[in-house]
Amino acid sequence: MAANLERPAPGFWLERHPLILASKSEGRRLALETTQIPFVVKPADVDERAIEAQLLARGGGADEVAAGLAEAKALAVSAAFPYHYVLGADQLASRDGWLFGKPADREAAAEQLRRLFGGAHRLHSGYALAKGGRVLESGVCRAELVMRVLSDVFLEAYLDRLGETVLTSAGAYQVEGLGVHLFTQIEGDHWTIMGLPLLPILPALRREGALLG
User: Fold this and answer.
1) Does the reported pTM lie above 0.70?
2) Residues belonging to the active site
3) Res 4 pLDDT > 90
4) Residues 144-173: pLDDT tens digits?
5) Residue 3 covered by a domain
6) CA 213, CA 208: separation in Å to the nearest integer?
7) Which of 17-20's residues contact partners 24+ apart within 8 Å by CB, and which partners?
């Protein structure tokens, strides 16, 4: 029997069931909370590295990987909750042909940051909206960021302060937190940088009739 979660629908939300966020990202949860859409968090159980490897082997770049992972997450959760709208998301950073996802450990985080020092890189934030085991809409939004050159002393202090948190975001930083100390310039909307591009997601939900127009 298919699972479902029920919650009264306040405000602009017109559905009987809450939206499901298929991500454990704290930044995405905080971003979605600002909309006051009722939602629950159900992280997708997918092998992200295996999916990424398949997409790269087919010649995909950062956009294709971000969108593909977002779709895989949305579909995995939608299979268990077919009566709910499910929102999947993923984010990568890119610079000079290099792709940066979540670092595996502190050493990998330091290496990612050193590769981003002193120049511009791009954030690719993929999103996918699914229902009934089908992707209804997906896409990628981008932002450009310029990172200053960090001293070794600052880098070590930054990694010490963040601890395990540094492993939870593409590029080993979170602009909404201490990551703001890393940058000299940022171009792009706030939600894309947070990893959940709300500006195209909300119109998609309105087109579906799930959100008051």
Assistant:
1) yes
2) 90
3) no
4) 999 999 999 999 999 999 999 889 888 888
5) no
6) 10
7) 17/81, 17/83, 17/84, 17/85, 18/84, 19/84, 19/85, 19/86, 19/87, 19/205, 19/210, 20/77, 20/81, 20/84, 20/85, 20/86, 20/87
Q: How many domains does the chain have?
A: 1
- Which CA distances in Å does 196 have to 67, 123, 124, 184, 189? 12, 12, 10, 22, 10
- Residue 101 — very low, low, confident or very high, per pLDDT cuts 50/70/90? confident
> For residue 156, is it within any domain?
yes
Which tokens belong to 182?
A: 């890393």
Q: With respect to residue 48, please indicate whether it lies within any of the assigned structural domains.
A: yes
CA atoms within 13 Å, Cβ hemisphere of 172: 28
CATH number at residue 54: 3.90.950.10
202: in domain: yes
**Range of 201's domain?**
19-207
Q: Is the pLDDT of residue 9 over 80?
A: no
